[in-house]
Amino acid sequence: MQGIVIATLIVGVIGLLIGAALVAAGKKFYVEIDEREALVRECLPGNNCGGCGRAGCDAAAAAIVKGEAGVNVCPVCDEKAIEKISAIMGVDGAETVKRRAFVRCAGTCDKTSVKCNYVGIHDCRSAVLSGLSVWQCDYGCLGFGSCVEACAFDAIHMKDGAAVVDPEKCTGCGRCAAVCPKNLIELIRSDAGTAVACSSHARGPEVKKVCAAGCIGCKLCTKQCEAEAVSVEGNLAHIDYEKCTGCGKCAEKCPAKAIVRL
Q: How buried is residue 71: exposed, middle or buried, by Cβ count under 10 Å (0-12/13-18/19+)?
């Protein structure tokens, strides 16, 4: 009997010591969590789909609070949810503008041609690592569909050798842009009226030799834009969407039709 009592006391003392050690460790390694993180998390759907580019809704909430992601980073959230998150974060409605992906290349099979026959894994990243230039244009879409595989919303597909985004399905999560090894996909405003469907920085004569839809850097677009929203840098047209009014004059006058209406 005495042995049982002693064993019980020993176990009890050990338990108290372990408990005290855990409490001390908890206080020492305690990480303070911003209370806004929990509030933002409640506004998120809880799908943990990864469409925002994060590991899940918890990670998305943390990124929003830390300023590493916008209040509209979740592609599943509706306007009401975004408004609630905006109120929690103390930002105005201007930061809740929805984005959509756009492929800055219109080099389909009828606009350019193949330079070599690529034999290997049909993945854009693998093709880039191989060092081969598959198409005549070194800047264009490779057409192997890494972006298609990355999209969880079936919003991007290959069409005639180039990636094309379906604006009705696109949520602006940016996963396609993240996997494109040539950085051809950018996130633009959902209400954008025009976009430059080219990424080539080659000079005009060189562009015309390899692609019928490439920007030749002629600057006619800049002369048409009354809002001064279009500029040409490195032989390539660029649209400032903060200034763009969506009039479409730049697209109308572009001789190569490298600027398209959306």
A: buried
192-262: what fold?
Alpha-Beta Plaits (3.30.70)
pLDDT digits (tens, 9 = 90+) for 42-67: 999 887 877 777 888 999 889 888 88
Q: Which two tokens stand for residue 231?
A: 């500029």
pLDDT tens, position by position, 120-156: 788 898 888 877 778 899 999 999 999 999 988 899 9
Q: Considering Cα of 119, then 121, then 127, then 130, what sign does the dihedral take?
A: negative
Report residue 6 as tokens: 């002693």
**Tokens matching residue 24:** 């001390």
> 235 — alpha (psi -120 to 50), left (phi > 0) or beta?
left
Q: In what helix (H) or strand (E) does residue 158 lie, and over which residues does it extend? A: strand 156-159
For the chain, the domains span 35-96, 98-188, 192-262
What values do phi and psi take at 204, rounded to 5? -45, -55
Say yes or no: domain 35-96 is CATH 1.10.15.40.
Answer: yes
Q: Assign a CATH topology to domain 98-188.
A: Alpha-Beta Plaits (3.30.70)
